[in-house]
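Figure S4 source data
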Amino acid sequence: MEEKRYLKWYNKVGYGSGDIAGNVVYAFLTSFVMIYLTDTVGLNSGIVGTLIAVSKLFDGISDVFFGSMIDRTKSKMGKARPWMFYGFFGCAVTLFGVFAIPTTMGKTAQYAWFFIAYTLLNAVFYTANNIAYAALTSLVTKNSKERVEMGSFRFMFSFGTNLLIQSITFGAVEALGGGAAGWRAIAIIYCIVGIITNTLSCFSVKELSEEELRDGEINEEDSKLTLGQTFKLLVSNKYFLMIVVIYILQQLRAAMVSVGTYFMTYVLLNQKLFGVFSWAINIPLIIALAITPTLVAKMKGMYKVNKLSYMFATACRLGLVVAGYLGSVPLMLLFTVLTSLGEGPWQGDVGAVIASCSEHTYLKDGKRIDGSMFSCTSFGTKLGGGIGVALSGWLLDMSGYINNAPVQPDSCISMMNIMYLWLPFAFDLIITIILSFLNVEEANAKLEKHQKAEERLSQYMD
């Protein structure tokens, strides 16, 4: 029987455009905050890394907290959309704060300014906005195909925005006056773009009613779950934990790839190549996302698509390592393209996989915690991204990186090779192993079959 459809094409496109807002925050922050802090503000990369790591201590609690708050929310806009809409205004203010550190301040005050703005951005406002945005996948439709399509549209906008930001930011900063003034100006522009697109996305979809989501069965106890009870339900779902780890590894990998700003400048001796490699990463991802719904339909599920595509991506990433040591830019670009094609399908259907994880908890424990379940997206993204940026700062500092030096020490060049070439391969390999065990669709099918058998037995006994 064909599943009921809930969305028009423009709903899915409108929803997906919300990741323009997400990435004017996150892609901008991850790709450029370290080089801005070291080469423009003049801060020490090791100290910045430590501050970011300390900031991450606040994130774990805030993710589960905001996920739980979304589950408890009742409003005319629904559960998630109020948090998505209002949360981004805070994102805009604090993102500007990160890239507007006064150069006339003393160093201690500059470190404090950065820490406060960065922590508020990640632990509060980005958390509220991002968890709510991700949770909409399970709140505006119950159709599994539509959830995959929403994810594909979302990440097409995500990687397109990522590509644009990585391609134009250095040039835009120079065109807007360069130095601290240039970074402030581009931050303002990105904040305005984010506010507009987040608002359009938020109002392009409408959440389903409680009755529709639960097939007419409303359990008031779900909204009364304590934070501790919600956390227990989350950690008892092994598929949720797998996705958290994958998100962390993906963001660690992304942070190492963002070291390309240094790798292109000091190893390949051409900073403009960072934009070229951004095209090689993001265009294939967008192509892969466009065909993901078709792949999932042909393979009759997400598990095989995700496992096989990531195996291919990992093998290609190893080819990139070899090409890097050969010093062949064309070969590096080729393997970058192939790696991205392999990584794309998981990005496209991850929202649907998380929705299936939420369904798993409902089938196993009888509780709906959709908002909390999607906290894995924010928690994994922020923790992995934060640790990744911190790690890049520590490793650069350990290797003897010199701010604004025309030539870096050999120890630093070797470290850049490890960070940009070897570590992303290692993270991809671990992700592939985890995906080989992440078959939540089969687990749900077994639970549903068992429940139906029990219902038939109960009817027979009656």
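Figure S5 source data
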Amino acid sequence: MFARDALSYDPIPLPDRADLTDAEMLAAAQAFHAIMLRRHTVRDYSDRPVERAVIESCIRTAGTAPSGANHQPWHFAAVSDAGLKQRIREEAEEEERRFYAGGAGDEWIKALEPIGTNADKPHLTVAPWLIVVFAQRWGQFEDGSRYKNYYVPESVNIATGFLLAALHHAGLCTLTHTPNPMRFLNDALSRPASEKPTMIIAVGHPAESATVPSVAKLKKPLEEISSFF
């Protein structure tokens, strides 16, 4: 973390070391891939509650992500209060109506058609939790003076990926939602001007009638998403 006082470099022995055989590494990689293959973006949620301790543990996992200069420039605002979720939904839907009314452009709207989404976002109130991800563009000392954070988008994106994987591993479904603009979330959640909201993650259990768009199962093959040299 960052401190006003100078921090010196103090190397310690690697505290955790995996010592797997080649076969064990391959098995572990394939097992994790199999787990992540079962991750689906879900828009239809059950109102079945999720204990706060589960959400806390998943956010702790997100907090272990690497970050620029180890500044950890993220904040995760977890919301279960029904009234606050309703406020977030109403303001998000207001932005979404402008988006679908022409703000997005024809090409973007056309690209969304196979997903089956629209301006109505019932998942924002039905899902038991919303986690709003904030990127901290700068930090502040106790006296209000600022210090710079580094590689903020990259760091927050990595941490968010950790969070999504942790939530899935805990047996929960998620939906990443990015209304634009999202500054209303700073007011709703009392976050400072130094933080920029990057997404809302709906978290919960799928409804019995939950569906996913068939196109969501179409993933690019390895040869299209990678190169080996």
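The mean pLDDT is 93. Strands lie at 74-79, 129-136, 138-140, 146-148, 173-177, 195-204.
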